[in-house]
Design a protein that fits this description.
heterodimer, A: 399 residues, alpha/beta, 2 domains, 6-stranded parallel beta sheet, 17 helices, 35% helix, B: alpha/beta, Rossmann fold, formyl-coa transferase, domain 3, 3-stranded antiparallel beta sheet, 37% helix
Chain lengths: 399, 458
């Protein structure tokens, strides 16, 4: 078997949902052994879907299958004293305990860090909650929507005269999951050098706020408060999704798209793309400030070209002129994308819902290939891991 | 934080050849965790972020030192300005790589090879080197040479295809979040490679495509298509996992709050908190499926309740009742939120020439044993040229010669006077305000933040 980057790392994961399980998926992909401890009726994502034919089945939830590849599953009822004793037994062999519970729940289960540290001084407790384990909102509930709202991303997404928009795909959960994963790796690095476990406390709202590009900085350095303004980037127009004859693309002229002031007599790449070098003489086309403010007039200048060319033609021509235009693929486009296929990005995984293509690891390592293993049936490792202590799973799982 | 405060990456040396956003986010996280990060710029081509969002721009002579976009993601780092087109520049870089643990770069593919500094070459210099390349589309595949800006990569990952108002076009998020996201992922990848090196003594090459890094966010949508041949539609603020979920207008100008309900019990609590316990018995709203079917009617009722209330009042009233809700904060709101303040989401740095400024954390995790904060301001241009060269054994005369020959510099080579650059970078904020691109300009913002000259600090 090929060597993996995190071979030998042992993780017990009592988290449910997206953020915690995504963090442990990232560990599992690099070879960590992840034992997923589910309540007897399973991680709640088993009930969320999507499901084949829209028929709910805890073994066929697309969201669950995506987030839990490469893990083993046992069922333990942590509301029960016997269950909690069983979990502590598992922690004896664990490096990391991952949870999405608030500290009040952990305390009820005797798993708050102060209590845990005494018995497991080398354990890393990794906790992801909507607002963090401390502070005035520590008891509050949340999800991707609340995290996106608090981060300033949402306020700045959408049309000026309509409600702010959430970004699709529950990204707040994934961003928090990545920060939890980072925190776990940092705490383990610290343990390897200096000894001792730690409490890693990730707030989903803070994790998303960390992804700010400049909204807070515009205030902290200039006193300016930005506001959503359609789909464009504030650093000039157009840096936006536009419609061509057969679909959408991102029009990004880039640093030199409208020419360089030092080469004023050379036709700009944008004018060449639009097949009309005369456009360079029009200030609405040529001048950054004018484009930003008179964008409706600019749109009229580019419309004839866009509506008579395909996305493929426009993006490839723009790239040939060294302008970083981009595609706007749908999920169907991604699954048949030649570039991703050549990179072998999607992994074909056998699951109870049949063979599906799942996104691969978010980075490639030259020396250690990713571990690829199917997601577990509920409680499928009960006999192996818990032996005689196993309690049957509820809700249609194996065992 | 308790413990001795020793940071986990102390002594780890990072040669940072990244620029703009994703790469510098990755290396800032490594720096926040204690690594010695040395970044590089060329005197002929500064990091473009040194021209973005200039602090209090009124025509100063060092525009490159005032760029907030640069400052916020380069704290805790040191910097050399060195011309890598000159053989002696490359020679200095090679000497630094020989003692480095990590090399990070974010050029388009081929550039490092052209410098003679591809992964194989780096391994000749330092056999256990960890190298990470952050790019738009990865180091191989038909689109490897595609030019890529962060603002195109959220759409390229598919996320924009499921973001937008119902029936409308796809939307980009209000900022290019896949850039920092791939920086976060890149930092974790380096930590993973460091763990592997600790165990085996072997280095790694990491190929990170920003497009790919963000695609897992599309996991459920990808499976919906494969399982049911349905391409998920743009649904505004609604979610397949919550009903109701929406963004509701509140009291004040352009003020909003989100509410997200994921169980019948939570819906009953929401109805109670809004003074309408009967909603939970209403057949239109009794189940998630029913609430989804009557979403417009339900949203209108919720909106009536939120309309006279401030966003924080909505949030605290509903959260107090056990309902997921949050104020929709703008850039200023993030700086003033009590929870973010209580947990030090911003650190205060003293950055010449712009003075004291709060900069946002890049490591979201809080640890018991150490604190990955901004402990050192962002470097000035070429600030550590001399210090680094002396550590390599260069004497004063050598350093002076390198400066004379333009191998190193503390100022950029500009074709025009810096004041003209400042003027060119001055954005027409008053017109943006008029147009609505900005919500407000607050001249007393430093007083509000407590960072005005003579103030105590925020």
């Amino acid at each position: 078997m090929a060597e993996r980057a995190l071979d030998g790392l042992r993780v017990v994961d009592i988290s449910q949902g997206i953020a915690g399980p995504y963090a442990t998926k990232l560990l599992a992909e690099c070879g960590a052994s992840v034992l997923k401890v589910e309540p007897p009726d399973g991680d709640y994502t088993r009930r969320l879907g999507p499901f084949p034919g829209d028929r709910p089945d805890p073994e066929q939830s697309g969201l669950f299958l995506h987030l839990n590849t490469g893990k083993r599953s046992v069922t333990i009822d942590l509301e029960d004293a016997g269950g909690r004793a069983l979990l502590r037994k598992l922690l004896r062999d664990a490096d990391v305990l991952v949870t999405g519970e608030k500290t009040s729940t952990l305390a009820r289960w005797d798993l708050a860090y102060d209590a845990l540290k005494a018995g497991f001084p080398e354990l890393v407790l990794a906790q992801v909650t909507p607002f963090g384990a401390t502070g005035p909102y520590a008891g509050y509930d949340g999800n991707s929507a609340t995290a996106m709202a608090m981060s300033s991303i949402m306020y700045n997404t959408g049309d000026p005269d309509r409600e702010p928009l959430l970004t699709g795909g529950e990204p707040g959960e994934y961003i928090a999951g990545v920060h939890l994963w980072l925190g776990i790796l940092a705490a383990l690095e610290n343990r390897a050098r200096n000894g001792g476990g730690d409490h890693v406390d990730v707030s989903m709202a803070e994790a998303v706020a960390c992804a700010d590009e400049y909204n807070a900085a515009m205030y902290a350095f200039q006193g300016a408060i930005r506001r959503r303004y359609y789909s464009r980037h504030i650093f000039g127009y157009p840096n936006d999704i536009v419609e061509a004859a057969d679909g959408y693309l991102v029009m990004i002229p880039g640093a030199a798209g409208f020419g360089s002031p030092l080469q004023a007599d050379v036709a700009s790449p944008m004018s060449l793309l639009l097949e009309d070098p005369e456009l360079d003489k029009n200030p609405v086309f040529k001048q950054a400030g004018e484009r930003m403010l008179r964008w409706r007039e600019f749109d009229e200048l580019i419309r004839p070209y866009l509506s008579s060319h395909t996305v493929q033609e426009i993006v490839m021509t723009a790239q040939a002129f060294r302008m970083p235009f981009a595609f706007v693929p749908s999920v169907a486009d991604l699954l048949r994308d030649e570039h991703l296929a050549e990179r072998g990005f999607f992994a074909t995984v056998r699951t109870p819902a049949g063979e599906v293509k799942l996104p691969g690891p978010p980075f490639r390592m030259s020396e250690t290939p990713p571990a690829e293993a199917p997601p577990p049936a509920l409680g499928s490792a009960n006999a192996d891991v818990l032996g005689a202590d196993a309690v049957p799973a509820r809700g249609g799982g194996a065992q | 934080m308790s413990g001795d405060g020793k940071l986990p990456l102390e002594g780890v040396k990072v040669v940072d050849l990244t620029q703009v956003f994703a790469g510098p986010t990755c290396t800032r996280i490594l720096a926040d965790l204690g690594a010695d990060v040395l970044r590089f710029e060329s005197p002929n081509r500064l990091d473009v972020t040194r021209s973005l969002i200039l602090t209090d721009n009124d025509g100063q002579d060092q525009p490159w030192a005032r760029a907030s976009y640069f400052i916020i993601r380069n704290v805790n780092k040191k910097e050399m300005v060195i011309d890598l087109a000159k053989p002696e520049g490359i020679d200095v870089l090679r000497q630094l790589i020989a003692t480095a643990d990590v090399v990070a770069e974010s050029f388009t593919p081929r550039v490092m090879e052209n410098f003679g500094l591809g992964y194989e070459a780096l391994r000749q210099i330092k056999p256990d080197i960890i190298m990470i390349s952050l790019s738009g589309y990865g180091q191989y595949g038909p689109m490897r040479d595609f030019g890529a800006y962060g603002m195109g990569l959220e759409p390229a990952s598919g996320i924009s295809s499921i973001t937008g108002y119902p029936g409308g076009p796809p939307y980009r998020s209000g900022l290019s979040f896949t850039d920092p996201y791939s920086g976060f992922v890149g930092a974790g990848a380096v930590l993973t490679a460091l763990a592997y090196r600790r165990r085996t003594g072997k280095g790694q090459y990491i190929d990170l495509s920003e497009q790919e890094a963000a695609i897992p966010v599309m996991g459920a949508a990808l499976l919906e298509y494969q399982m049911n041949q349905r391409i998920p539609e743009r649904a505004g603020d609604r979610s397949p996992y919550a009903a109701p979920q929406g963004c509701y207008r509140c009291a004040g100008s352009d003020r909003w709050a989100v509410v997200s309900v994921t169980s019948d019990a939570e819906f009953a609590r929401m109805a109670e908190a809004m003074g309408h316990p009967e909603w939970a018995q209403d057949a239109r709203f009794a189940t998630a499926a029913a609430r989804r079917q009557h979403a417009d009617a339900l949203d209108a009722l919720i909106g009536e309740w939120t309309a006279p209330r401030a966003p924080y009042d909505v949030m605290h009233a509903l959260q107090g009742a056990g309902v997921k809700a949050a104020a929709v904060l703008d850039g200023k709101g993030v700086l003033f939120d009590p929870q973010f303040r209580a947990r030090n989401q911003f650190d205060l740095i003293d950055q010449p020439p712009v003075g004291r400024r709060p900069v946002q954390r890049h490591v979201a995790a809080k640890f018991g044993r150490f604190d990955p904060k901004a402990r050192m301001r962002a470097p000035l241009l070429g600030e550590h040229n001399e210090e680094v060269l002396r550590e390599l054994g260069y004497g004063g005369a050598d350093i002076a010669r390198l400066r004379d020959e333009g191998v190193i510099a503390e100022k950029p080579n500009l074709p025009v006077p810096p004041q003209l650059v400042s003027a060119a970078l001055k954005l027409p904020y008053d017109r943006y305000l008029e147009q609505g691109i900005l919500q407000a300009l607050e001249p007393d913002y430093r007083e509000q933040l407590g960072i005005a000259d003579g103030a105590d600090g925020g």
